Amino acid sequence: MNNLIKKILVSEKSFQAVAGGKYSFIVDKAMSKESIAKAVESLFSVSVLSVNSMNYKGKIKSVKRKAGQRSDFKKGILSLKPGQKIDLFEIEGDDQSSAKATDGKGKSDKKKQVEKEPKVKKVKENKDVEVTIKSK
Questions:
Q1: Containing domain of residue 54, as a range?
Q2: Residues 32-88: pLDDT tens digits?
Q3: Reduced to 3 states, what is the DSSP secondary structure of residue 109?
Q4: What b-and-e string marks burial along 68-79, b requiring 16 or more CB atoms within 10 Å of the CB?
Q5: What average pLDDT does the segment 103-124 reach?
Q6: What is d(CA 99, CA 97) in angstroms, rounded to the nearest whole number?
Q7: Which of 6, 75, 84, 113 has the CA that lies 20 to 30 A from 122?
Q8: Between 4 and 27, where is the model more confident?
Q9: Is the overall model pTM greater than 0.85, yes or no?
């Protein structure tokens, strides 16, 4: 069963569909909708309502003046029962004390980079005019 579901499809569109209870996987090309549903149910212990599957042909790309082709694949989109979900990624809480700021070269910066709000001074010149001065 593990060889039938190759990987989870990671894209912006698939992450937006997760909010609606739909999950996208790249599966073996020979799998039917029933076998996709059974594989996901056994791996993640969830109930599948429906399966949509699509076959994709690999794009032809040029690589150093030669034509190459990406591999063909099959995508399966599964709808789960309401209230059920698949934990695709473990998200750890943000621990700001252990987080280190890095510059573009990968070196860690010892100082915490905290966004400071600019200081605002209000100066009244006349009764009708109010001037604000922002300083960094």
A1: 5-80
A2: 999 999 999 998 889 999 999 999 999 999 888 899 999 999 999 999 998 888 887
A3: strand
A4: eeeeebbebbbe
A5: 53
A6: 6
A7: 113
A8: 27
A9: no
What is the C-alpha separation between 15 and 7, in angstroms, rounded?
14
Query: CATH code at 29?
Result: 3.30.70.330
Integer Cα distance of 1 and 37 in angstroms: 11
In a domain, 60, yes or no: yes
CA 96 from centre of chain: 22
**Residue 32: inside a domain:** yes
Per the CB < 8 A criterion, the answer to whether 40 and 78 are in contact is: yes
Evaluate whether residue 24 is within a structural domain.
yes
**Tokens 């937006």 -> residue:** 16
**Domain total in the chain:** 1
Give the per-residue pLDDT at 88. 72
Whether the CB-CB separation of 48 and 34 falls below 8 Å is answered with no
| Residue 46 included in any domain | yes
